[in-house]
């Protein structure tokens, strides 16, 4: 038997064992690398604009990151939660209050607020929902107190409304209560967005409002009629004064004209008295004689002689 047909079993098994151990080591190394990468990436977090990252260790807050960028936490023992850093709007529940004049009304508010100190907020309110609940309680209490000092008409009337300063007072007082209890939040604005009446009171109030508006309209009409009569009286007075003045001036002009005409007539007639006498006689005929006129005159009167054609 030739030597090349003889197989060394020890040599083959030893070489194969060496290659298997190498693969096992490579596999273990790869697993460790992957585990480290997973461990690193699962403990990296990103802080974004407008948010707080709260790092807790065994339930206790150990750090708060609010600077945008990448940050790390300790694996297994630390957890990360997020709180909003931007301003938030909260719709306060509709509530019923009594006004100074003992009328009931429904008030609907909203509030703009933000978290200023996450540690205080978590320590005293625990959650955002609890913080909003406490804020709503304070708002309702102060709104009820403030509106209880005003009459109903002062609240709903645009002319008498003091809502601007009222909203500012409510905001200031709510912030004082929140600061005293160290909730770590600030209310930037509280607004009354709607005032309404309970359903059982609406009809009576609407009826009263209609009556008041009708009374006001009648008052305006009366004032308008009085002003109209005053203007008409002043206008009539002015017209009479202008007419009297015009008539006076017309009479003066007419008198001056008649005087001038008489002067001209006198100058003209004085140049021929006989012609003037004839002219006056003829003028009298126009006024005294018509188709039905009967004149009885002595036959020798100058008037009769002119009528009969005797001019000498």
UniProtKB/TrEMBL annotation:
Tell me which SUPFAM superfamilies the record gives.
Answer: Band 7/SPFH domain
Q: Which Pfam families match?
A: Band_7
Record's Gene3D superfamilies? Band 7 domain
What does the similarity note say? Belongs to the band 7/mec-2 family. HflC subfamily.
Asked if Hydrolase is a keyword of the record, the answer is: yes
Signal peptide per UniProt: none
- Which superkingdom, per the lineage? Bacteria
What exactly does this protein do? Answer: HflC and HflK could regulate a protease.
Q: Which InterPro entries match?
A: Band_7, Band_7/SPFH_dom_sf, HflC
Main localisation, per the record?
A: membrane
Task: Output this protein's name.
Answer: Protein HflC
Does the UniProt entry include the keyword Transmembrane helix? yes
Gene Ontology molecular function, alphabetical: peptidase activity
